[in-house]
Amino acid sequence: MAQAKAVAKFWITTTDLLDHVLKHEKRIQLAEPTKDVRIVHRLVSDLFCRYVQLCRSLERCYDQTLQVQKRAVIQQLLEAGQARMLELRTKLQEIELSEFVYVDGALQEQHLIPDDVLAVRPCYFPARRPDELQALLDAQKLPPFIEPGSDSEDGSSSDESEQPEEEQIPVEKGINRPVVKRDRRKERLQAALNLITAHERARQARVRQTNFRLHPDRYYPKPIDEEIVDVPYEFFYRPGQFMLYPVKRTVYNWDFRMKKKDVVHFAYYAPPGWEEQTVRLASVRWPDAKELALKQQAEEEAAAELAQAEAAKRLEEALEHIRLNRAAAKIQRYWRKFKALKTQKKHRFDRSKFLGLFDDYEPKLGDALAVAEVRAARRARQPEFDRSFVAAIADEKARILRIRGPALLEDITDFVRAWFREWYDETLAFDLIPEPFQGGTVLIVRGETLTPLEYLALERQKQLDKLKTPEQRKKEADAMKAAKEREQEKKREEKARLKELAREKRARERKEGKTYDFTEPEFMTNAYLTLEETLARYRKDWAFVNELDNLQDLPIMEWITLDKFAEVHQELHAEVHELLKSERELLQMALCKDERMKYKPPKPKKPPRAKGAKGKKRKEPIDPTADLSVESILNELVERNVLKTCRQRTFEDYIGDFNYAAFERRNRLEQDPPPGMGEVRTILQSYLYGMGPLAAPKPKSLCLVGPPGYGKTLLLEAICNETGSTLFDLSVDTCGPIEPNNMAYFLQLVLRAARLLQPSVLAIEGVHRAFYKKVPQPEQPLDPAKLGKHLFKLIVKQLKPEDKVLLVGTCDQPWVAKVGPLKKCFDKILLLPRPDYGSTVLLWQYALRRFPTVPRDLDLSALARVTTGYSAGQILECARQVLNIRRRMQFGRKPLKVGELLDHFLAGTTPQYPIADKEYEKFVKWHRKVDKLAKQRAKVMRERQLLAEQMAAKAAGAKK
């Protein structure tokens, strides 16, 4: 209850936020048209930040709302809000001439941080497929997209990459041997543990043997007069027991203590070292005076020695007391010093907290997990409410049909029959009932058909037209033709005038700069109008509904009754149409018989055919896969190794920081800074909004370009895992065995399967190989060009905006491909940036913190400065190879040094270096050729540089 009430309150707050955003946009529309790009950028970025926060709130409401009718309204608002947010982002990209935009100015004005405007994973990801299709897909044994143990191009070193490969015993033909899977990693750990245990046992045995040899009196006690039963220990070999070689042999079962014999039952036996003392009888003799004096002297000497010993003992106790006092004083001194430092540190902490230097809030992981579990449990109840809503609709429709159906059917029939009587009384004729595609009997009830008076007027006009002479008819036809030509001429003139105005506007914009008017359609889009209309309709429909009272999220039955009543009314009209159509024919036949006229049955009307833009009939392409079932399609693609699985990756695994200085350099210093790796995650996530069940704009195809080790495969796998997409591998190696004649059929088969199993990702690794300028000799047997010939026509062109299918390609040698065909196949082409200093620090932290024993205070600043420019794959591979298990075991006596990581790059057998500036510049130049925004931005930067040089030359001439 409490959660439902909180969700309802949050929804009310979100509607107020939406109203505030729409009012803010209306105020922006009142701004005067301007040519200042910075003003437009500030206004649009401010609006973009507001829409990002609005979409996050709407998404949370959509995720946690169980009331089905309200969720439908929230879905419309969320779809329109996301479309509007992406439109504003596109407008910012057009202003900045870059795919990567920066809105730091708006963040400062609204007191936000960069994380508040980043694209996040929508709540409806991963998308759900129908259960039967998901069951078919799960039943298939799909091969992995990246083979285990192979060096992937992103070079990432995950935990599973260190796991050993499972080996199988080869099976000979005709012999069914069991397959034994070996866990080599476990075997290596067990062998290392056995070796360490053997060495330790041998060392302890040698120590004991040395002690027994050097101190026999301490380890050889005399036998006691009681029975001691020895438990003998003897070493024997068992199958499977680890042998102790190559350790030096040591007798583990040797008893170093002397054997203790039973001296009770052997009265005349003296063990070695035993001295038997016999009691001798002597005669009693009285001591004399001398002996008494000696005895007294001995007793005095013993008393003196005892007193001296007691004095020495008291002195030793006094010294020990002094030492203890000194130790206690030292401990107290250090304790007081520690307490003083701790108190001073706490005072410094409290002072910094009071001054607002940091936020002492520490999020608790347990609380976050509990909140996530509660939200997931509430989200899991949505299908239950959907089923209940569908059942309520079916029950209400059945109730209306049972209670109101007969009366409605009779009312409609009586109304149409009264319409027949009215026509007969006034015109002595019966009008045709409109066909169902025209509206049927609904038009009769609404009164939207031809009236008897209009029918009589048309009949009189027909009679008059028959009396006209041919000259009059020709004159009227010529007048109508001339009027039609004049109308067409006006349309052509208006079209030419608009075209001329557009041409003049473009010329004026090129000369004076573009003028931005916030009342034009480019700012007032359909998404904005949809938001306004949906919010107004919600406020009107839900004005008398108290949402805080409906904590059980029950549907509003009044609305269901109205909708189902209208639906039943339409269905009954369709049933009445056939009945009354037959009655009308009988009445018309009877009328013709009474009037002695020939009965002509009416010609059935056909619904209009769908035509294309130019009025031609739409020709549907022939689908050769139409007769195939879903199972046969999946089986064929699995046999061809097209359907594959990928590793569990997310966009968070693509480690990289943002370029925080890009806004200042781009908007104030007029420079062209490279984007950060963090911006790549944001732009890719914004492209994927349309891959879910909600309607949102998305590109059809995407190409990731960058050197090896820059994370292209990682991002491809992250796209598949984030959206829950089915992965289709269309690389050149997969398509190699396919004959060129069957390539069109194969791509049509893949496209149909991708639509059936959507969301789907069509992955092409090394897409430049399909568009080779000149095919290399080793790859000529694969014929890679056969894929590039059909890729645009059969895949990209066939994709519709509503298809949840995305073509993703990776490329590390784009200059060897034909620019035109490659550019035509991909809507978006992203060049992955080189890691900067911030991204390199994050990469080293991620690579080292994966190992728990690595010290956390390791200074990575200098290492990151030196290794800036190395790819993420090189850094992760360096950490994996240097910090092996043997090196991690030495941390106790040999701490890790930064130089060891650097020596791996420089002191290895083959030194590794980052990609050279000249080589990376080849990627940049190629990207400027194929990316429209990058090409325009390069042109603007050249003009700015030329203008700056001219200004500098003028200033130098003025000084002279």
TrEMBL record:
Residues 150-169 have a biased composition (Acidic residues). InterPro entries: AAA+_ATPase, ATPase_AAA_core, N-DRC_Component, P-loop_NTPase. Keywords: Coiled coil. Residues 144-177, 467-499, 597-622 are annotated as: Disordered. Residues 292-332 form a coiled coil. Residues 599-619 have a biased composition (Basic residues). GO terms for molecular function: ATP binding; ATP hydrolysis activity. Residues 698-836 form the AAA+ ATPase domain. PANTHER family: IQ MOTIF CONTAINING WITH AAA DOMAIN 1. This is AAA+ ATPase domain-containing protein. The lineage of its organism: Eukaryota, Metazoa, Ecdysozoa, Arthropoda, Hexapoda.
